[in-house]
Amino acid sequence: MKASDGSGYIRTRYPDAEGAWQNSHYHISTYETYIVQSGRILFAELQDGKALIKELTENEVITVKPGVHHNVFVTPNTDLHTVKHGATQVNDWHTSVELDRLLVEQATGK
Fold it and tell me: Which of 16, 22, 26, 39 is most buried, judging by how many CB atoms fall within 10 Å of its CB?
């Protein structure tokens, strides 16, 4: 569900799937709040040139400020709510090549 001003709501569920990283990104003016209804996610953020990963479980919430490069790994059978809010703009989604690279390096040990 996406409004014309760029705000919106997404519900993600990966039933019986392997789980997956989404695409690393950041927003210029949009806040993004992740709410774990059930299951767990890994939340990654780029901080001082490093990928910091934090696990969130049922009923935990994290809000990402504008300008923070981030990504989410949704594990199997997780219900995740994502809310885009604040001073939203249309098309305020920008790829974070650096965070994607760091996450691949961590996963492969290279």
Answer: 26
What average pLDDT does the segment 43-62 reach? 97
Which pair of structure tokens corresponds to residue 42? 């890994």
Residue 87 CB burial class (10 angstroms; 0-12, 13-18, ≥19): middle
Token pair, residue 91, equals: 């098309």
Q: Tens digit of pLDDT for each residue in 5-34?
A: 888 999 998 776 788 889 999 999 999 999
Strand partners, 76: none
pTM: 0.92
| Residue whose structure tokens are 């953020």 | 45
Interatomic CA distance for residues 32 and 47, integer angstroms: 17
